[in-house]
Each structure stands twice: as structure tokens, then as C-alpha cells.
Amino acid sequence: MTRIDFYILKDVEVHAMQRFACRLASKALAAGNPVVILNTNEDSARLLDELLWVYPDQRFLPHGLQHTTAAKGAPIVLCWDEPDSFDGVLVNLSSAVPDFFTRFERVAEIVVGDTRDPGRARYKHYRDRGFPLYHHDLDDWEAA
After folding, report:
1. pLDDT tens track for 67-109
2. In the list 38, 64, 76, 110, which could disulfide-bond 70, CB 3.0-4.6 Å?
3. Is the dihedral of CA 76, 80, 68, 55 positive or negative?
4. What is the pTM of this model?
5. CA nearest 35: which of 68, 80, 64, 76?
6. Coil, strand, or helix at residue 76?
7. What is the pLDDT of residues 29-44, one digit of tens each?
8. Per-residue 3-state assignment (H helix, E strand, C coil) for 18-71
9. 3-state helix, strand and coil shares in percent for the chain, rounded to the nearest 5
């Protein structure tokens, strides 16, 4: 059964969600897990693509945008609709529960600022269907 981790950041700005997604991807990659990061749309995926080149500092995170040659074989794939592969970890940056989430071993949900209400709705969705839920309150996560 898919494990669902909710990361509640004290930050109020939405860009913290993207930075934290980069950190999650880095940790998952270090553990040998492929990562799919689901974005709201292609524009937000392209912004995250740019961020992955510079954040976190001093790290290179090999990645590619969905439907490009760079995505083939990349351990991190940025998508905005259903991905081509379903291995490892899904980081959900969209406001909805993706229809295909059960095809992943783990799902990471990141909640910041005004994404709390959609985050609660996603939590209830997973809980009502009996998925194992884990809750992580993070305060000074960028200092780590």
C-alpha cells in the first residue's frame, strides 16, 4: 500500500514548497529512489526545472521535463499530467490528489501558507481510503 507523507512547513510563501520539493528529491535520489514531481501545469514544471539547476547549493540533481528526451532515464522527472513511469516517490505539488498515486511506493504532500485547505482535503481523501499517513511538522528545514 502506498505510504503518504505530509510535510507541513512553517513557511507561508509558495516558493518554499518548490525548494522543499528539491530537497525531498535530493534525499530520495541519495536513497536510490527515482522521483516524479507532479506540478500544476507545464509553466510551474519549467520553473521547477530552472530551480533544480541551482538549488540546493553545491548539488546537481539530474532531471528532465516530461515528454522530453532529457526525461528518458532521468532519476527525477518533472510532469504536469500522468507520468510515463511509476517508480519510487511521487512529490505532489498540485492541489488535487492524482488519480494514479497508488502506482507509487510513496507520495509526498507539501503544505505551506494558503495551501493548507487543499492540503486538509487531500489528507482526508487519503485517510478515508485507509492509506498509511505520516505527518512531519518542519520549522527551520532550510538550515539543515
Report:
1. 999 899 899 999 999 998 888 999 999 999 999 999 999 999 9
2. 64
3. negative
4. 0.95
5. 76
6. strand
7. 999 999 999 999 999 9
8. HHHHHHHHHHHHHCCCCEEEECCCHHHHHHHHHHHCCCCCCCCCCEEECCCHHH
9. 35, 25, 40
